[in-house]
Amino acid sequence: FFFVSGNGFHISIFYYIGTLLVVRAWFNMSVGIDTLFGWYIFAVSGHFRILRHKIKETALKIDAYDNHRDFVSDVAAFVSYHNRTLKFTENLNRLYGEILWSEISMSCLQLCFLLYSLTNDENFANIPFHFFASAAITMQLMIYCFGGEKLKNENDMLCHDIYMAMPWEKMYPSEKKLMLLPLLRTQREISLKGLYFVINVNLLVFIFKTAFSFITLLGAMKEI
């Protein structure tokens, strides 16, 4: 309403600046959320590495020094630290559950339409936009999906290290029974969830399969 003269150039500049501001705001929000998610993933992964180090230290005391006195306290410290790590993962799911659901759902739809436009747009001037937008969405999906896969792999490696690092032949029967608790706890699957789906590499493959199926469907409808 500032341009009552009807000058189309001024109106175009107004809309152009407004669009840039909106894009900048969405960009800042997306970068902030994705970067914070990445830091959370690395933090949880660091906790799992600490747990693996604790197990190796406990195993070394028995294997190299035949020290069985600290075994019970070491296992108790491991279980306590593992509890805090699991709690951290649960908090991450609560914090990012709705965000992951909305981000993955919207990114899947956007990727479907962008890939279709990339292969069927007759205006070659639009191809760079479609390409870079598709690449940005793909990178965002990879951040989330590979982050969820990393947590799963860290938990699997912890379970593997418990089984392989402990000198079972040198341990007392009571110590072997006590180690069943950490083994059973680490065999529980740890995953990031976006409310209705699990965030991992399989989800990324499913999204790409859906996008290419969508392209095929629209291409078939276009020929009818």
Keyword list:
mainly alpha, two-stranded antiparallel sheet, transmembrane helix, odorant binding, membrane, cell membrane, olfaction
Radius of gyration: 26 Å
What is the approximate shape?
elongated
| End-to-end CA span | 45 Å
Relative strand content? under 5%
The structure class reads mainly alpha
**What is the average per-residue confidence, as pLDDT, rounded to a whole number?**
86
Largest sheet: 2 strands, antiparallel
Strand order of the largest sheet: 1-2
Helix % is: over 70%
DSSP helix count?
6
Q: H/E element string?
A: HHHHHEEH
User: How many distinct beta strands?
Assistant: 2
* Unreliable spans: 1-5
What does this structure look like?
The protein is mainly α and 224 residues long. It contains 6 helices and 2 strands, in the order αααααββα. Strands 1-2 form a two-stranded antiparallel ribbon. It is elongated. Helix content is 82%, strand content 2%. The protein has helices spanning 8-65, 71-120, 127-165, 173-178, 180-186, 201-223, and strands spanning 192-193, 198-199.
